[in-house]
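Example 4.3 (complexes with small molecules)
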Amino acid sequence: MSDLVLAMTGASGAIYSVRLLHVLLSLGRTVHLSISPAAVQVLREELDLKVDLENFDAAQILPAEESVSGDSKLNLLRGQGGSSIFSESDARYGRLVYHHYQDYNAGIASGSFPTGGMVICPCSMGTLGSLASGLSSNLIHRAAGVHLKERRKLIVVPRETPLSGIQLASMKTLSDAGAVILPAMPGFYHNPLTIHDLVDFVVTRICDQLQAPVELMQRWGTE
Ligand SMILES: Cc1cc2nc3c(=O)[nH]c(=O)nc-3n(C[C@H](O)[C@H](O)[C@H](O)COP(=O)(O)O)c2cc1C
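Answer. The structure with flavin mononucleotide bound is encoded below.
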């Protein structure tokens, strides 16, 4: 199975990326992870996760169930039956490779490094605009640009509302360049009861794009 790239940037919806990371590792995938400084702020604000980009440790972003304190925001995101975003599967099967957002020596900065695709989740409007302009001011921009030039799958998960004309134009530019624009816009036809259900809708659609099928929700037309 090919390696995948996951970049977290500073848009709201950090839960989508943490859940996605857990699911991909549970599938046994190797995930190359890069995190922007603004994403660190959002992870802390929304999930109480304290990520140190200079001294990164996987447990900072995928804490063991038993180490999540009772009043942690992660507990607000529990699903039916109290399942957490870290339960139902075992993330130890996969391999997490961390890359500092300024490390242009990372393999994913080069088109010669093989991958099966890249996801930017959530994608801030800042990163969106940079990509649409061809900027490469951090490893996330560079790796995304590499995926476009190599004609590999690039999935961008933007989160903002409402959207300006500049932001819509950036999405169109990226889509024309081959990226998949997959907004963090959960559907409601699968009868979600919890935030966890809404998160899994978006995560399922991302995994579908990566051709990494998962059964996290009831799909339309299936029993
Ligand atoms: C708590 C928090 C939530 C934010 N939410 C969003 C958002 O939903 N969408 C967005 O485009 N920017 C959002 N921002 C602003 C971005 O983080 C900011 O524009 C930053 O420069 C993006 O940098 P990056 O793309 O390198 O991560 C948020 C910032 C914070 C601190």
